[in-house]
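lol ok so funny story. i was supposed to be doing the assay writeup but got distracted and ended up predicting the structure for this chain instead. priorities right. anyway since i did it might as well share w the group, maybe its usefull for someone
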Amino acid sequence: MDSESRNNQSCAFTVHAPDGRAAILQFSRWMARKRVLGGLTRRLLVGQRADVRSMIEQSLHTHGVPAPVADATIGWLSRPRVIVGLARRRALAGADAVQGLVALVLEKAVPPAAAVAAPSANPAPPAPSLNTSKFRVDACDHLLLPGVPADYLDTPVWHPEFATLLAEQSVMSQLQRDRIPLPTTSAREGYCADRHLEYWLYGLDDMRKLVAATGLDRLESPRILDFGGASARVIRHFVGWKPGADLYLSDLNPQHILLARRMFDGAVTAFRNSGPPHLPFADDFLDCVTAFGVFSSIDADDTAWLLELRRVVRPGGHLWITIHDQATWEILPRTMLAHLLSDYPEFAQYHAANPQLTGRLVYTFSAATYNNCQVFHGSDYIDRFWAPLFTSCTTVPLAHDYMSALILRV
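and the output, tada:
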């Protein structure tokens, strides 16, 4: 019924639009097919990212997924890292695991049924129209899970180290005190899938390791930058840790910056870093910089970024960065990177022929602007190019799951 035919109606009514969950299920089944994921991955490999997005958009439309849901999720669904991760997930856990994750992400984007009142007999004058092409509203509540972290105690924790952590009374108390919402699975780029509690514990575990290695707990008001901090998995655990702490997060992805500003309400200063290596800090300003999974994705200017990070850290301060090194190389078939061996024959051949990792290996698998490669560092490369830039360089093998940590002292 159009608005003209309702002009004389004064009663209110409610419109319950179909939420499209059946369509979401059908699309998720399509996305979980081995042939589909294989085809999408092959197109990414040859740089046909636009074709990949077009294929997924067409399938969303064909299966009848509601437009608001499709619009909200197409960016995540067509992300190279997500597609490769889904292919890996299918190989390791089967099609049902992929279908479940895709359906979960899409269902989170389903808008609630809207209550719409019909116009009264004496309607108010229409509001002035706005040209939406000339302004933008930065809204990201849809990227946050409802409630607080403690609401997700019933979600799985697979990693035994994190399960042990949860058994500590102090950790449970900290969880109960944390009122900062968790990002959705899609907002954190699939990190820990629907294991929301494990995501929280993962960040706490890394925070504890960092503090123990750098002595940050001995400082009254530490200044900390989470470089490439993404969805704030780690930096969130520093909020409230020390009242005088000065906390920063930077990332390439503008969505992550919006998310951090919404989550922390000023307790963490979030900004986007892009372009040539540069950070908006004075020399010797920070006590510590963390970089989890950043230098494993920088295909160029790695040393330039390292020099910039060194510039902004005071003498005696630390950089904590995680990398793929020899320890990662040796267990590669048992890690989340195993898909590189199964999906890319040339990489598998190189890995088999070179049991000892030397130099710096960059394997680019996508034409995306970032998150398009995996970088591996041999100890010879670190000793020759990175270690001389610092007063000390300590390697902690496999400190961050399948990645090793470098503790660099300025």
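The CA atoms of residues 225 and 248 lie 5 Å apart. Residues 21-108 form one domain.
back to the writeup now i swear
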